[in-house]
Amino acid sequence: MMSSLAATQLVPLAEELDKNKVTPGVLGFIVFAVIGVAVWFLMKSMNKHMKRVDFAEEPDAAGAAPVASGEGRRA
């Protein structure tokens, strides 16, 4: 019952809008620009952190790696 009541009240509002003139406006542009800048900073940070990673594994001098805290245990 509530959905049909809401639909009957929203139909006149939808008829008043011109579908060719509805745009996201300035707020939509600002939100899109902020998301773009945030992604740019995240990618810049990720590249900086990935450059610090050393992928070459060095053999352990003792032959067996000691188990660090949290490794090897399962809950």
Task: Walk me through the structure.
Keywords: Membrane, Transmembrane, Transmembrane helix. This protein is mostly helical and 75 residues long. Helices cover 57% and strands 0% of the residues. It contains 2 helices and no strands.
How would you characterize the largest beta sheet? none
Low-pLDDT stretches: none
Structural class: mainly alpha
Strand content: under 5%
| Net shape | elongated
Calculate the mean pLDDT score and round it: 77
SSE pattern: HH
What is the number of helical segments per DSSP (H or I, 4+ residues)? 2
Helix content: 55-70%
Please state the CA-atom Rg, rounded to the nearest Å. 28 Å
What's the number of extended β-strand segments?
0
Cα distance spanning the termini: 50 Å
Could you give a quick summary of the protein structure above?
Keywords: Membrane, Transmembrane, Transmembrane helix. It is built from two helices and no strands. With 75 residues, the chain is mostly helical.
In terms of topology, how is this protein built?
Elements: H1 2-16, H2 25-52
Keywords:
57% helix; mainly alpha; transmembrane helix; 75 residues; transmembrane; 2 helices; membrane
